[in-house]
Design goal:
Blueprint: E1 10-13, E2 21-25, H1 44-55, H2 63-76, H3 97-109, H4 114-122, H5 125-128, H6 135-140, E3 153-154, H7 157-167, H8 242-250, H9 252-269, H10 273-285, H11 291-304, H12 306-314, H13 317-320, E4 321-322
Antiparallel strand pairs: 1-2, 3-4
């Protein structure tokens, strides 16, 4: 099939009015950014190729830095440039400009390999350091922008939900296919009534497969700073609100999944409370409980049951925060 379709002639428009065309415009980049230009009769494929090569040109000082900064932001919560969408005069200056330049150069020389960049970052001493707080560091850099410790942060709303399903042995890892609904309606004027999606088999897939309704937040995990898809969000906020705690302790999702988690623990280790508590800690936060934690948890299980302990774990900082 013919893929190279000639574009129609483009014109400057008087006051933006398509009914008032003026001078013809050739396909070209911005004149002050190492400009490239094509003849007006060039086809769509030629234009896209030139644009892609212009963006990814090793001499372009911006593209690699923006990508590197986004990936750094993914690992550390904040990019070397805190304003990920704005590297201009109105943006924040990089905290480590030489590091940003070096990473961008390494990224280009690796053949623009995102996998190599991830490996480079996570194998660094900076990434592997502890997040312990000390007074001298706080006095000089309370926001950890100088990376004297690993900055702790709450995991994303989708990861919280998927993590609860995973430790409860309820997460469906099926890939591809149609997504599942969070609301009874996908559009129209009748409003959006939330669905308890986890009660359906397809609703226990990873949250990336949930059908996103613009301007509507998921009933439970929408409180955890998940963007509503109404506009671009280069970086998620990190708020702490009473609604988050109420949703994560009292919602039907948490109650049901705490039951599933408790059932998994009982299946794994039986009815011994000490063994149950140790298994709960191992599955949820990857370690054994400390003696005082074991003592407190035993009292809680004896008085309120294993499911209540599971709900408490889902609300614990160690389960919700990285690291």
């Amino acid at each position: 099939s013919e893929m190279c379709i000639r574009d129609r002639t483009m014109h400057l428009l008087n006051r933006g009015d398509p009914e008032q065309p003026k001078d013809e415009v050739a396909p070209a980049s911005l004149s002050f950014l190492n400009p490239v230009e094509l003849p007006g009769e060039s086809n769509d494929l030629e234009r896209r190729t030139v644009l892609a090569n212009w963006i990814a040109d090793p001499d372009n000082p911006l593209t690699a830095r923006v990508i590197v900064n986004r990936i750094w932001q993914w690992h550390f919560g904040t990019g070397l440039v805190a304003t990920a969408n704005d590297f201009g005069n109105l943006g924040v200056a990089p905290s480590h400009p030489e590091l940003l330049d070096w990473l961008a150069t390494e990224f280009i020389e690796s053949g623009w390999s995102v996998k190599d960049l991830h490996r480079l970052i996570v194998s660094s001493d900076t990434y592997q350091q502890a997040h312990e707080v000390h007074s001298e560091g706080l006095a000089k850099d309370s926001d950890s922008r100088l990376l004297w410790r690993f900055p702790s942060r709450r995991i994303e709303s989708e990861v919280i939900r998927d993590g609860i399903l995973a430790v409860s042995n309820q997460l469906d890892l099926k890939m591809f296919g149609r997504g599942y609904d969070l609301f009874h309606s996908r559009g129209g004027t009748g409003g959006f009534k939330p669905i308890e999606s986890h009660k359906k088999p397809e609703g226990r897939r990873r949250m990336i497969y949930a059908y996103k309704v613009r301007m509507e937040r998921e009933a439970v995990f929408g409180a955890f700073d998940c963007p509503d898809a109404g506009q671009s969000a280069p970086r998620r906020s990190q708020s702490t609100t009473p609604i988050q705690a109420l949703n994560l302790f009292n919602s039907q999702f948490t109650i049901d999944l705490a039951g599933d988690f408790a059932a998994r623990i009982q299946k794994d280790v039986g009815d011994d409370s000490a063994a149950q508590i140790s298994r709960a800690w191992q599955l949820s936060i990857g370690r054994n409980p400390e003696p005082d934690e074991l003592s407190d948890a035993k009292a809680l299980v004896q008085e309120h049951g294993l499911e209540t302990l599971c709900r408490v774990i889902f609300n614990s900082n160690e389960f919700l925060f990285l690291p």
